[in-house]
UniProtKB/TrEMBL annotation:
InterPro entries tied to this protein: GGGP/HepGP_synthase_sf, GGGP_HepGP_synthase
Protein name per Swiss-Prot or TrEMBL: (S)-3-O-geranylgeranylglyceryl phosphate synthase
Gene Ontology molecular functions: metal ion binding; transferase activity, transferring alkyl or aryl (other than methyl) groups
Keyword Lipid metabolism: yes
A Gene Ontology BP annotation from the UniProt entry: phospholipid biosynthetic process
Source organism per UniProt: Nonlabens tegetincola
Pfam families in alphabetical order: PcrB
Top-level taxon: Bacteria
Signal sequence extent: none
Record keywords, A-Z: Lipid biosynthesis, Lipid metabolism, Magnesium, Metal-binding, Phospholipid biosynthesis, Phospholipid metabolism, Transferase
Length: 238
C-alpha cells in the first residue's frame, strides 16, 4: 500500500522528533519504538510513523537519519523545515507547499532548491498542502518562515486553501497549529475541510491528551502528530 493510502486508512499517529533536540543512540531508538507500540495499543491506532524535522536544523540531519533509520523498524518520514532537510535515509518525504504563507520562499523557492536532488536520488515524495493556523501563540514556524498564520475563524479561507491544494494535485493536507500551540486546530475546522476537500488530513500542534486526539480523529483527521508532549515527557500516556 502506498503512503497516502496508508495515511488515508485513518487513526494513525506520527511522533515528531526534532534531531536538533534529540541525540540519537540505541537507547533512544529503543525507548521511542517502545513508546510508539504502547501508544498504538493504548489509542487503538492503525499505524504509528516517525516524522523527523524541525524549523531549523543545526545538526547533520543526514547522519542523524542514517543512524536512526538503522535502529528502528517503523516508517521514517521527513517533515522538512527547509530544502536542507532532505536525505536519502528516509522512507518518504513530505514535499510541503506552505499554502497559507505568502512568502515566495516557502511557496516555491524551497521546493525548487531540493527538486533535482530528490529526483536524482528517487526519494519518495508525498505532495502536501501545509497550512499554519493560529494556535494561540507565536510559534517557531511562524518566526522562521516569516509567515502569518490563518485565524481559526477564517474557515472559508482555510477550506478554499485546502481545495486549491487538492486542485494543484497535492495528496495530503496538513493543518498545523504550530509546535507547542496552546490551541490545537479546532474540530470545526477539521470537519469543514473534511467535507469540502477529499485529501486525507494531518493535524498537528498542541495535541497533548487523548481527548484532543480523539476529537481530531472524530472530526475527520486521518493522522495526528505529537511532538512536544512526548519530547517533554517520554512517559506521556504510560
Ligand atoms: C506538528 O508542529 C506539530 O505538526 C507538533 O506540535 O510539538 O505541539 O506536538 P507539538
Amino acid at each position: 500500500m502506498d503512503w497516502v493510502s496508508r495515511i488515508k486508512s485513518g487513526r494513525s499517529l506520527a511522533i515528531l522528533i526534532d534531531p536538533e533536540k534529540t541525540a540519537v543512540d540505541y537507547a533512544f531508538a529503543k525507548a521511542i519504538s517502545k513508546k510508539a507500540l504502547s501508544l498504538k495499543k493504548k489509542l487503538n491506532l492503525n499505524e504509528v510513523f516517525f516524522f523527523i524535522g524541525g524549523s531549523t536544523m543545526e545538526v547533520d540531519l543526514d547522519k542523524w537519519l542514517k543512524e536512526f533509520k538503522g535502529l528502528v523498524t517503523l516508517p521514517v518520514i521527513i517533515f522538512p523545515g527547509s530544502h536542507e532537510q532532505v536525505s536519502i535515509h528516509c522512507d518518504a518525504l513530505l514535499y510541503l507547499q506552505f499554502m497559507s504563507s505568502r512568502n515566495a520562499q516557502y511557496l516555491i523557492e524551497e521546493q525548487i532548491k531540493s527538486a533535482l536532488f530528490i529526483k536524482q536520488h528517487k526519494i519518495v515524495t508525498i505532495p502536501t498542502s501545509y497550512l499554519l493556523i493560529d494556535g494561540g501563540k507565536s510559534t517557531a514556524v511562524q518566526r522562521v518562515t516569516n509567515s502569518q498564520p490563518y485565524k481559526q475563524t477564517d474557515i472559508e479561507l482555510i477550506t478554499a486553501t485546502t481545495v486549491a491544494g487538492e486542485l494543484l494535485g497535492h495528496k495530503l493536507v496538513y493543518l498545523e497549529a504550530g509546535s507547542g500551540a496552546v490551541l490545537p486546530v479546532a474540530a470545526g475546522i477539521i470537519e469543514k475541510v473534511k467535507s469540502s476537500c477529499s485529501l486525507p488530513i494531518i493535524v498537528g500542534g498542541g495535541l497533548r491528551d487523548v481527548s484532543q486526539i480523539e476529537r481530531a480523529f472524530t472530526a475527520g483527521a486521518s493522522l495526528c502528530v505529537v511532538g512536544t508532549a512526548i519530547e517533554e515527557n517520554v512517559e506521556w500516556m504510560d
